[in-house]
Specification:
- The protein is an alpha/beta fold and about 270 residues long.
- The chain is about 30% helix and about 20% strand.
- The chain is built from nine helices and twelve strands.
- Helix 2 links the parallel strand 3 and strand 4.
- The chain is globular.
Length: about 270
């Protein structure tokens, strides 16, 4: 099955009729990047987000992907994490573990989650230290234009307010440029304490995918994607700040999330 792909000034836009079609396209996209990364570098480094995004990855557990993906070469990280116990219902690690990681033959030592016994600040520093060690060994690639890690793929969801990872509109974490991982203790959404990749790290990835579904995301999608929406509301929107420096950006959205995009986006 093929899906329409529209190239815009804000990346490639893929609009799907429903969640099943979107999920099918998303897992095929992930599989293709995994295969290419393993062929080129011998490993595949992927950073996951939480929320409804994980539910859309379920088809990775089924044929043909359960057999064709080289799971032993996957190294898994989290774009952001709630600073709670790994067994907590709010844990992004638990969400991914229950929905994906226990159903595919990923090597446990290749799964890099945060130390949940630390404070938010300590957990962010510890997580960054671990990633820096893997960059030194080149298991994680390094950006061509900065010292940031260059993940093969970063998967992001987008909230109705346009937040990505745990980077929220008008939050000071958006301004962090000299750290790879930062922390917040006042998230607008509970739980309040979180760690998150910074914008420079997200924009250093080889591939970034943003997933947005449902009518509640329509206004944020318009501000994030429409080339004509350049103003205070859009420029400060975390989702619009996602713009890989040398990598590829793809938006996976359903018809409801895309319902307020201007027609110009579909004619390019």
């Amino acid at each position: 099955m093929s899906f329409p792909r529209v190239q815009t000034s804000r990346g490639e836009l893929r609009i799907h009729d429903g969640l099943d079609d979107l999920s099918t396209d998303l897992v095929e996209y992930i599989s293709e990047i995994s295969d290419a990364s393993v062929k080129e570098r011998g490993v595949f480094t992927i950073a996951l987000s939480g929320g409804s995004l994980i539910g859309l990855l379920g088809k990775l557990c089924d044929a043909p992907y359960s057999r064709t993906i080289d799971w032993a070469k996957w190294y898994i990280f989290w774009v952001d994490e709630r600073v709670v116990a790994k067994s907590h219902a709010d844990s992004n690690y638990k969400l991914a573990k229950d929905g994906l990681l226990t159903k595919v033959p990923v090597i446990p030592s290749h799964v890099h989650s945060i130390n949940d016994s630390l404070s938010a600040e300590e957990a962010a520093s510890d997580y960054e230290f671990g990633i820096r060690q893997l960059v030194k060994t080149r298991l994680i690639d390094v950006s061509d234009i900065s010292d940031c890690p260059k993940f093969d793929l970063i998967l992001l969801g987008m909230g109705p307010d346009g937040h990505v990872a745990s980077l929220f509109p008008n939050h000071s974490a958006l301004d962090v440029k000299d750290e790879w991982i930062t922390f917040i203790t006042d998230s607008p959404k509970p739980p309040p304490e979180r760690i998150t990749f910074t914008i420079p790290v997200i924009n250093s990835a080889s591939n970034v995918a943003v997933v947005a579904t449902g009518g509640s995301k329509a206004d944020a999608m318009r501000l994030a994607v429409d080339a004509g929406n350049v103003g205070p509301d859009s420029l400060g929107l975390p989702a619009r700040m996602v713009q890989p420096a040398t990598g590829r950006l793809v938006w996976f959205v359903d018809q409801q999330a895309a319902s307020k995009l201007n027609e110009i986006e579909f004619s390019k």
